């Protein structure tokens, strides 16, 4: 696959080519950057614990006895992954999107929402983002309350001082703060900009769909988006996802609006920066590039950096602590962009992070709502690392070996 991607990158244009007529029709077509970005993600996965020296998969072999998962750890795989990510960066074609007005919330929103900006490497022009919008919007906006964030993801966001909720003195789970006449639970106060760009929480202000004016969103059981108001369209956790939701998409008029010219972002520079930092930390811990690219992501997000900028945080001590910080950053920066499920498997942490997932108490009104309860139970089985191969394929290709656990 890497060889094929290299061949493609060698002949693809740096930017979409056109003859000057209907140039926008070329947007979304394959470029050199696309091929190199796919290669970078591929090699990052190949270097990760699930595939790199995973002795738990020693019995996963072809019919001829060939091991299908590498049984010996190779640090060189991390170097290849780092080099591949750096190759995308060194094209000097892409830059992190920043709001012209300097608003960090709008900056992180715009990376996905602002069509064809310079952070976007690989996008899908024809997509169903309007469906995402309607599912993620509250019923107040004509949406379906269908895509809920977990409490675990809410807890993953940093505070505005750049520290986790476990490290920051700003975090509180008691009391309320008046925000423009609305009582907001202190759990949601003083959070980082990416939290406000990504999560619709109880009494947060929202305007979208068929709403004519901004209004607080309530997930209380008897509230306008609560469990009692509809047989199916309610959040199991008391949250909805706000990230990459086009507020102009109007469910009441058949889904017309902002989605019409918004591409679905599949690869962007923020991911490549974090790919590079992760791979570099594994094969060359202490390399200055690790902090450089990790901090570029944090700087755009509007939070303090490690060892640099205003109010700097202490630089992570050693490879293991840096690994933890990079993974935490990745969970927040790339949330709801189709990465987490792959990350927890390639890192082999899925058994630890699956299981009981929580939310607020959606069966209550008023202050009783604000308590963690189990929202859903996920049973993790080892076979879940990969999909099963269908019996049809096994029958027609007698040399095909079933994936482990199936």
From TrEMBL:
Localization, UniProt: Cell outer membrane
Main location: membrane
Residue intervals of the RagB/SusD domain: 137-406
SUPFAM superfamilies in the cross-refs: TPR-like (SSF48452)
UniProt keyword Chloroplast present: no
Keyword Cell cycle listed: no
Keywords: Cell outer membrane, Membrane, Signal
InterPro entries cross-referenced by the UniProt entry: SusD_RagB_dom, TPR-like_helical_dom_sf
A Pfam short name: SusD_RagB
An annotated GO cellular component: cell outer membrane
Membership in a protein family: Belongs to the SusD family.
The protein's name in its UniProt record: SusD family protein
Organism: Chitinophaga rupis
């Amino acid at each position: 696959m890497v060889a094929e991607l290299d061949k493609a990158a060698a002949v693809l244009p740096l930017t979409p080519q056109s003859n000057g007529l209907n140039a926008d029709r070329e947007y979304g077509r394959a470029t050199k950057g696309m091929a190199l970005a796919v290669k970078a993600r591929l090699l990052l996965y190949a270097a990760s614990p699930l595939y790199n020296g995973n002795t738990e998969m020693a019995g996963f072999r072809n019919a001829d006895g060939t091991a299908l998962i590498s049984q010996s750890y190779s640090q060189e795989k991390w170097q290849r992954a780092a080099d591949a990510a750096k190759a995308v960066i060194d094209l000097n074609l892409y830059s992190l999107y920043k709001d012209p007005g300097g608003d960090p919330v709008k900056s992180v929103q715009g990376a996905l929402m602002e069509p064809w900006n310079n952070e976007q490497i690989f996008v899908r022009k024809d997509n169903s983002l309007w469906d995402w919008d309607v599912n993620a919007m509250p019923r107040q906006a004509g949406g379906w309350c269908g895509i809920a964030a977990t409490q675990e993801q809410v807890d993953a966001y940093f505070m505005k001082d750049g520290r986790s909720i476990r490290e920051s003195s700003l975090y509180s789970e008691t009391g309320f703060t008046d925000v423009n006449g609305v009582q907001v639970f202190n759990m949601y106060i003083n959070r980082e900009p990416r939290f406000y760009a990504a999560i619709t929480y109880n009494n947060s202000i929202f305007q979208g769909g068929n709403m004519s004016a901004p209004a607080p969103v309530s997930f209380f059981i008897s509230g306008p988006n609560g469990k009692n108001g509809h047989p199916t369209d309610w959040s199991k956790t008391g949250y909805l996802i706000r990230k990459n939701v086009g507020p102009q998409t109007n469910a009441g008029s058949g889904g017309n609006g902002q989605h019409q010219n918004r591409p679905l972002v599949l690869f962007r520079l923020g991911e490549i920066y974090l790919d590079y930092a992760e791979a570099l930390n594994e094969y060359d811990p202490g390399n200055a590039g690790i902090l450089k690219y990790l901090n570029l992501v944090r700087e755009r997000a509007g939070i303090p950096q490690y060892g640099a900028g205003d109010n700097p945080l202490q630089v992570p001590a050693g490879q293991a602590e840096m690994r933890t910080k990079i993974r935490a950053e990745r969970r927040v920066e790339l949330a709801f962009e189709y990465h987490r499920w792959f990350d927890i498997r390639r890192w082999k942490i899925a058994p630890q992070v699956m299981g009981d997932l929580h939310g607020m108490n959606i069966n209550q009104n008023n202050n009783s709502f604000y308590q963690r309860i189990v929202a859903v139970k996920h049973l993790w089985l080892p076979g879940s690392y990969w999909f099963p191969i269908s019996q049809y394929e096994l029958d027609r290709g007698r040399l095909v070996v079933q994936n482990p656990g199936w």
